[in-house]
Amino acid sequence: MRQPTLVHPARLKARPPYAAPGQTIGLLGGSFNPPHAAHRLISEAALKRLGLDKVWWIVSPGNPLKRRVHAAPLAERMQLARAVATNPHIVVTDFEADLPTPYTASTLAFLKARSPLVRFVWIMGADNLANFERWERWREIFTMVPVVVVDRPGWRLKALASKAARAFARSRRPEADAATLPQMPPPAWTFLTGPLSHASSTAIRNRAKANHQPAARTAQKPDSVPWRKAKGEAAEAAAEMPPSRPGDFHPEPLTDPDLILSHHPARATARRLPPSAERRAPTGEPVGPNQRR
Description:
Helix content is about 25%, strand content about 10%. The chain starts with about 25 loop residues before the first strand and ends in a 54-residue tail after the last helix. By secondary structure, it is α/β, with parallel strands linked by helices. The protein has a single domain (about 20-293), classed as HUPs (Rossmann fold). Strands 3-2-1-4-5-6 form a six-stranded parallel beta sheet, sandwiched between helices. The protein is built from nine helices and six strands, in the order E-H-E-H-E-H-E-H-H-E-H-H-E-H-H.
């Protein structure tokens, strides 16, 4: 496999957000087409459980694993992602567009060389781990930074049985030790469980298509988000979501930012869920929030 040409970070135009020496930064990369509830849910889970200083949403110019069809312009996706990322500890950036290659391993190498005193942690959903062997230099990614995998509806078993999970089984750390993961030398990873969001780009796009409306204007009211429904209604809402294939890339504009609600008590900006709504996700495989490469 041909290795990319190494370029000194100072010679690149890419300018990531500022991080002070000693800070711990979580990295959530993807196309964000569109940003939705699961992006913020995953980010806030990592912020809280790992004690991160910030989470950077790295909005990619495109997914190398998929063709760029119906892709919203990068500037539009950036604007929409900022509208969703209202948590002050989440920073939206598109610096990856100015790197020579679009691959995660190259992005991590750039960040580590540019900020050697900053601790970085890679964040991804369980759906990504299930197909991680498709990523460029995936083994190298595990040896560069600690990795936290956040559960997604219907993906837990597939993720933990994946080729990547088996290859680095000895490097997996207990979920109870998640707070110490950023200080661990890689390879080190953990799997976080907790409240699940059924928000998916596929459902948003198909609903917009059915209504003959642009996906960006297809509002999803807070009560229509499955994890906010009462028991008995959530399964029905999940059943309405179309099936998806692992690794699917779903580029499209953002739905109404109101659907993004903080689900963690420490950062809650909306009323607490009724006990009946706090339930396990029904079986299904909605597309993950962080389709990556």
